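Annex B, item 7. Sequence and structure tokens for protein A, then protein B.
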Amino acid sequence: MEPRARPQNEAEVLTAGIAVLRDRLPTGWDVRSRSHGSVPDTGFDALWDVTAPDGSTVALVVKVKRLVERRDTAALLQQLSTSTGAIPGSRGVVVSRYLSPPVRERLSDAGLSYIDATGNIRVSAPQPGLFIADRGADRDPWRSPGRPRGTLKGAPAAKVVRALLDHDKSWAIRELVDIAGVSTGSTYRVIEFLETEGLATRNSSGAVIVPDWVALLRRWSEDYGFVRNSRVTRWIAPRGLSNLLQRAAGSSVRYAVTGTLAAATWAPYAPARSAMIYTSDAERSAQLWDLRPADAGANVMLAEPEIDVVFARGLTDAAGLMIAAPSQVAVDLMTGPGRSPAEAEELIEWMTRNESSWRR
């Protein structure tokens, strides 16, 4: 249940946080705030004693931060590790006004408990056997309507992300602007967002570096999708997929094969039962490739993309077939139908093992 009023400062965030915890404790459990002066001050913001029905107690060392971004996780972990190290048996907890799903996942992966004022909570204390997990809001209920939301949606973001994925290097902003083909302002906005998510960093000279391209790819998949970002029509290849690929190879229309058929270039998973193909003109492609419209039983999806980066840095195979770049194929599989997400994991494993062969 969301609070009626937005917590205005850290004191109000703490008050909301302990109320969320108290409301979700099992019957017979209690939580009380302890005075700072009773223990060494190692930089924490509050100390809460949680007491079980049998009288056993665990101290929760609290670090409060009104806004938490994914890049804050390492610093919070270090601060709470120092604090809990000074209080034997204690557990660290991050308390915030609101924690987004990616931030909650990052905190959980780091082994940190968390609470936000909307009711998102995950608190674990093996002694005395406490585990609480509950969902609050998945969107910040207090975000100002005029404030832009962090996102990787849209053409500029897709073009910048694809450039960062496809090249293993540190980037001067001007160089990234040129390769991605977007404005300087758009590039800065995307990089600033990636920095807040912990997906991009700057070195001492100001150059942009992607420390984990897989994490970047997964984050992009949250805002990009094969179907979401294209006009998709469905067709039947009456003579089978092999005949379709033979007809497509060398044809005059602009296209790029993606999905399972493309992934088989690098990491065969299972025989393809359908085709996913980007094309600049679906009707023209269907005519050239002898496809038939289908409402049911389709084995071909033709996608006219909103963003032409899907054609960038592809390759031509030995048969003359145009294949989308591995990074594009991977994100399309991650957001595709049926078994596509499992195939994406196989492709990502290949990409990780063979990074130098596709990431220049």
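Protein B:
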Amino acid sequence: MALNREFRDIVNIGPHCHERFIDSTNTPEIKALDIELAGCSNLSGTYQVARVTPPNHTIFYTLSGEGCVFTPQDKLALPKHSLVLLPADQSFEVRITAEHWDIIWLNLTNSPRWQHLRTPSAQLKSNVDLASVHHAMELLYLESDGHRREGVIPIIQHHLRSVVSQEANVQQARIDVLFSEVEKQLQFDWTVDIMAQRAHYSAPHLHRLCLEKYGRSPIQQVIHLRMIRAKNLLENTQWPVAHIAHYVGYTSVFTFSKRFKKSVGVSPTDYRLSTINSNDMQNTKVG
């Protein structure tokens, strides 16, 4: 549910907050992971940071203490061992809500590497263990030797990929559920907006996920499933073409036939005849 909160850029950090910044200037190795900026922070007293439509994805992970994050959709508590993934282009505000808040945070570029973070809302994860990432980041900050810094980059890569992969799996599972539902109701007038609502994604995000998984847009995937079902019915039933057209979601036989020929290369009637002829030839060979 939207909070109707007005966001503005804020940096209000009190004198009792200590932060160790890791950027591509002092630690160029982070460029290999498409990390623009990161840090380890020990916070107490005043800490309030807000961004309006930031260009990068942001991760906050709580080592101890507690903070909270406001998004356009929600207010999320961040206790110990919790992590929030904030997608690019979505405003947010973070605050400390306890006597102290020890965190690590990362700004990830909005690149193909981190495309699975392009979600319609923030993702909160509990019982996450990123202690290894914390130690690796402290070493990056302290170590002056570039070769030694390179040695800890794979540690950060492994754990970040694990976190993002979990989110990717959740998204792909949601897409699987959506199109399983579509396949069971091919006669339904599916639109992008309806599918996006069913999957709880924005229409552009659903489009991206479908391209990643199927190489087709959402509507193209619906058509693909309809053509598979139509071919099966033409091959294995004596149903009239008009009946099949309605069964797979086309009220007009002409529209169905035109779409079928565009997708398969022949008309539904010719496809059925070619299937019958092929079966007859196989039966003759067997005989």
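Comment on protein B: The first strand starts at residue 10 and ends at 13.
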